[in-house]
Every structure is written in C-alpha cells, then in structure tokens.
C-alpha cells in the first residue's frame, strides 16, 4: 500500500530517541491510536542523504524534490507555517494540515496578519494545542475567513496509580530552556516562590545551545537533556 498521508517533522527532529523533540513525541504517541497509521509516512531529516541543509527552507525543498511525483492526499506539518506556501506550490492537490504548538506570532510564516490569512485560506485544517495559541493566531486576523480550525489539547496516558499523599515538593519544567517555551516565566516564578516557601524545589529538564537565561543553582536545579522515557518515569 502506498502511503497517502505524510507527516513532516521539524528538520531538527526525528523519531530517534536522542533527537526526538516535543513534536516527534507528540506524533509518535498519537499514531498508536490512529486507525490510519498503516497509511502514514513520517518524514524527517534522516530521509535525505544530504546532511548539509541546516535551514528549514532547504529541508522542505529537499522533501518537495524527492516526493514531487508522489500522490499525497494529506501533508501534515507542525510548528512550521513557513512550509505552507512551498507545499501549496509543489503539491496543489494535497490537503495541508498545520498544528501550532507555540506562539504563531513568533514563527516564521505567520508573524504578519496577511501570512495568517494565507494559512487560513490554504490549509485544510489548522490545529491549536491551547486556547492561548489560538487567541494569538487570530490577533488582527478574521476567524470568519474559513471555519477550518480546531482546538485539540495535548495529554498523557497515566501509566500507574499515583499516591498523591506522598508527593515531593517539586515543580518540574521540561523543554527548551528559552523564552519561546516560557522558561523566563518559570525562572521568575521560581525566584519569587522560593522567597515565600524555600521548601519547594524547582527542577528544569532540557537544554538550549543559545542559552540566555542563567538561574542560580539554589533557585532552579538544571539537569540537562534527558530521554523522554526517563522523564516520564523519573
């Protein structure tokens, strides 16, 4: 069976554990419950022999070149609105689905109202993982252009019964340690909270090559990157 649904991961991510970011984990977990999983192909930078494309545009152009003759029914992209124009041009008959996991106003291709209106007109479906992200998308943009958007929250499957009477006083942050992920807010809250109640611990799991937020170790304990499985069962 030829795959009819292609899901394109952000070019820095893959399903390999040490390269799987939030989007890859989201997709991997979602596919377990999809009735279409046998008809889905996951695309990542691992699919291309040229390892020298370190920009999103080069990555998506590589995809278009490799699969230009494929009959793709649906192309699903995550957090990369800049891909929409390129995909629409190269695959005019394919339906495009875009999921936002972050602030649309901070992502290339949807900063301007005109860019977001283009996305509304040219995507089959737009999915937001939070009300706040949806609200941000429609700033100075009409929600009446097309009624083609949905709000779908992320979630986790609870694997074991949790005894809440034995909880430790830990507040955990997991993700990139940058402002896009809200780490600056977490840092500020930690500083204020520790003054009120120093018994609580703030722990951050993640990394950031271009780090600009450096909390004191007595405020936040940063333990670096951890495999997703380790995070879920720590």
Explain how this protein is built.
This protein is of the alpha/beta class. It folds into 2 domains: 5-151, Rossmann fold; 164-232, Rossmann fold. Helices cover 28% and strands 16% of the residues. It has helices at residues 22-31, 56-66, 83-90, 113-122, 131-137, 183-196, 228-232; strands at 5-8, 40-43, 74-78, 95-100, 125-128, 149-151, 170-174, 201-205, 221-222. The strands form 2 sheets. Strands 2-1-3-4-5-6 form a 6-stranded parallel beta sheet. The radius of gyration is 20 Å and the shape is globular. The chain starts with a strand and ends with a helix. The mean pLDDT is 88.
Architecture of the largest domain, CATH level 2? 3-Layer(aba) Sandwich
Q: Would you identify the CATH H-level superfamily of the largest domain?
A: Glycogen Phosphorylase B
H/E element sequence: EHEHEHEHEHEEHEEH
Number of domains: 2
Instruction: Count every helix, treating DSSP H or I runs of 4 or more residues as helices.
Output: 7
Helix/strand/pairing category: alpha/beta
> What's the count of strands?
9
Give the end-to-end Cα distance, rounded to a whole number of Å.
Answer: 40 Å
Apparent shape: globular
Beta-strand percent range: 15-25%
CATH class of the largest domain: Alpha Beta
Taking all Cα atoms into account, the compactness measure Rg is 20 Å
CATH topology of the largest domain: Rossmann fold
Poorly predicted runs: none
> What is the typical, i.e. mean, pLDDT?
88
Major sheet strand order: 2-1-3-4-5-6
**Major sheet size, sense and barrel closure:** 6 strands, parallel
Percent helix: 25-40%
